[in-house]
């Protein structure tokens, strides 16, 4: 069955970016000239996703407004003859069908996914986290969908990270099935370095079978008192095969301030209108030349 639907959990409070996120969602922080969440939506669309569900919370209305039609703005741009800007604004509202559901309590990522049960039904689906911006030739999600289409099982995006950082991630124990494909045999959420089964971390892209919902319905809270998606996927792996995809591309952790700054620099250097002048500016600041 084709993966056509995606879930975006966006109900978090974004406390690591306070005070910038006091009144504006973290997902709407601008990376150059687009909010973070738009990059991830564009990735999903490029991977073939046709419908998206945002799992939202209080204070997230600006996300809905961003992906909606803006009659006043479009009329203003039309009257001013700003055709390029008008086209870009219209594309945002037209790129994909978007739906919303409210997560009333912040009970963890697993609970957020459970909120999407009625929307998903009995179909495989994708989950994308807005913290992770992946710059890749083939969309990161598209790489996972390729693995799903071949093996017909849930797929996790994997990235090798330095062992000194592994305690910040869920990580996997896995058996290699090829150059970048693995069968996952165990998962540990944020393990101490000496207890981590590998250096392969789970990052914010998943393709899941609908069997995950039955598990999430009875899932007990795990670390942090939250319903952990990793715990549920581990249970799923005992019932059906779960795979990992060591994706090709550069991931920016935009849930971290330093990661966000690095992403800003990297993305700016890829833009023709900024590249030369911005690179010169950086050299002057760093080298005094």
Question: Which tags fit this structure?
Answer:
five-stranded mixed barrel, 289 residues, two-stranded antiparallel ribbon, alpha/beta, globular
Largest beta sheet, briefly? Answer: 5 strands, mixed, barrel
Please, what is the average pLDDT?
91
Q: Note the gap between the termini.
A: 57 Å
What class would the helix/strand composition place it in? alpha/beta
Task: State Rg.
Answer: 20 Å
Spans of at least 5 consecutive residues whose pLDDT stays below 50 are none
**Number of continuous helical runs:** 11
According to DSSP, the number of beta strands is: 13
Give me the strand/helix succession: EEEHEHHHEHHEEHEEEEHHEEHH
Order of strands side by side in the largest beta sheet? 8-11-9-10-12
Approximately how much beta-strand content do the residues carry? 15-25%
In helices, the fraction of residues equals 25-40%
How would you describe this structure to a colleague?
With 289 residues, the protein is of the alpha/beta class. It is 36% helix and 24% strand. It contains eleven helices and 13 strands. The protein has helices spanning 36-46, 61-66, 71-79, 83-94, 109-114, 117-120, 140-151, 212-217, 229-239, 257-269, 275-287; strands spanning 5-9, 30-31, 34-35, 51-56, 97-102, 125-128, 132-135, 154-160, 170-176, 181-189, 200-208, 242-246, 250-253. A five-stranded mixed beta barrel has the order 8-11-9-10-12. It has a two-stranded antiparallel sheet with strand order 2-3. A two-stranded antiparallel ribbon has the order 7-13. Helix 3 packs antiparallel against helix 4 (83-94). The protein is globular and about 60 Å long. It starts with a strand and ends with a helix. The model has no long low-confidence stretch (mean pLDDT 91).
